[in-house]
Amino acid sequence: MRICITNVLMTPGVTTQKDIPFIQDAQIHIVDHLIVYAGARTDAPAFEADEVIDGHGGLAMPGLCNMHTHTPMTLLRSIGSDLRLERWLNDAIFPVERHLTDEAVRAGTDLGIMEMLRFGTTSFNDMYMHMDMVAEGVRDSGMRAMLGHGVVDFDESCTDLIPGIAFAKKWHGSSNDRIRVSLAPHSEGATTEKVLRQIKQAADEMDLTVHIHVSETKLDRNECIERRGVTPPHYLEQQGLLERPVLAAHCVWLEEDEIELFAKRNVTIVHNPISNLKLASGIAPIARMLESGCKIALGTDGVASNNNLNMWEEIKLMPMLQKGNTLDPTVVSPAQTIAAATSVGASALGYDNLGLIKEGYLADIIIVAIDGAHICPCNDLQSDLVYSIQGSDVQMTMVDGKVLYHEGKYTTLDPKAVIARAKAEAALLFERANNEK
Ligand SMILES: [Zn+2]
Fold this sequence. Notes:
The chain has helices at 85-97, 102-118, 131-141, 161-171, 174-177, 193-206, 218-228, 232-238, 256-264, 273-278, 286-291, 311-326, 334-341, 343-348, 381-387, 415-436, and strands at residues 2-10, 23-31, 34-40, 51-54, 58-62, 64-69, 121-128, 144-151, 179-185, 209-214, 246-250, 268-271, 295-298, 365-369, 394-399, 402-406, 409-410. By secondary structure, it is α/β, with parallel strands linked by helices. The chain folds into 2 domains: 2-63 and 355-406, Urease, subunit C, domain 1 (Roll), CATH 2.30.40.10; 64-348, Metal-dependent hydrolases (TIM Barrel), CATH 3.20.20.140. The strands form 2 sheets. Strands 1, 2, 3, 4, 5, 14, 15, 16 and 17 form a 9-stranded mixed β-sheet that branches. The protein has an 8-stranded parallel β-sheet with strand order 6-7-8-9-10-11-12-13. A hairpin with a 2-residue loop joins strand 16 and strand 17. Helix 4 (161-171) runs parallel beside helix 6 (193-206), helix 12 (311-326) packs antiparallel against helix 13 (334-341) and helix 13 crosses helix 15 (381-387). The structure holds zinc ion (ZN). Zinc ion binds next to loops.
């Protein structure tokens, strides 16, 4: 398939940490899953396209990467609202999650992917259970994702690692390499030293990324110090895990020495500002982390603590929170924010040609309308991109060279069927959970 996106304003994405460049009247040529030209329309080589997308009034930019979520939790949207994290998990989430089935997880996955595509997310990083169903949802929808079976281990049996490794063997690199697999120990508190050692060994053998929750709450940090004598980042270092590429979700409670350790070890910290606020976990010191050279990506976390998968809300909040917290409006630039939502996440997924609109890169591209009243008159596009644009402005979402969403229409999902199945599976799920009470 040869696609030409023309007559569009374009940003190739964040190529330096300082500025977001824009090209007026741009054109993009795509052959199969790769971008073969991206630049000024007047400089474009001759190109015969099967499909031409007129991007008039829009901005073409790299697709968003939601780097920490639990997609099937869409079925648990808004339950246990306004509870503290420990009570929210134990009283609201776990009693329902116990009753998840393959069918429920698949229905929740499709619903999540439908929402993500609508808001311009082209790839996501997930940790959950019944992961074959999530992988099938990614495979069938055309989405891109890194998926991991969430490993818990309280008794040193390490039995939960077995499905995690089997899942990696089955799916890593599948669907034209749209699916990548991580090993995903849930957190320091939900795993043993023994299982972490085994995860390190398996990750080495299969060359996999490790995805883990780190210091989400003050309690997580304090309990780790009590149990292990060190904070979670130093504990992960002791277990050798930081020798692997690591995606560390949350990192709300990190001190200077831990930030420096993560910077030195090239860990990608995934900031989930809304979830951290809603569960009253705190505000991660992102400005300080960026200053120390940490890699920062953005995520929504699961819908149950957000309560949606709209990355534009995270984009706006990330710099806002740091400005308010440090009383310094110069911290966290639009370029740093858009990089966190695009290129930093894309490279943490393990691709070296994802996250920019550039020749040779994978065609994960979105078009965002910029002719709305809330963006007019486009005085400062960098600022508009972070603070003015809404998720609903996304007009087109392309993953791996395939248009998956365009002006309200999905090409691989039937929205009415997805919603009906999600509602039916949610009803069955809550019925099973209530029957147990
Ligand atoms: Zn999480």
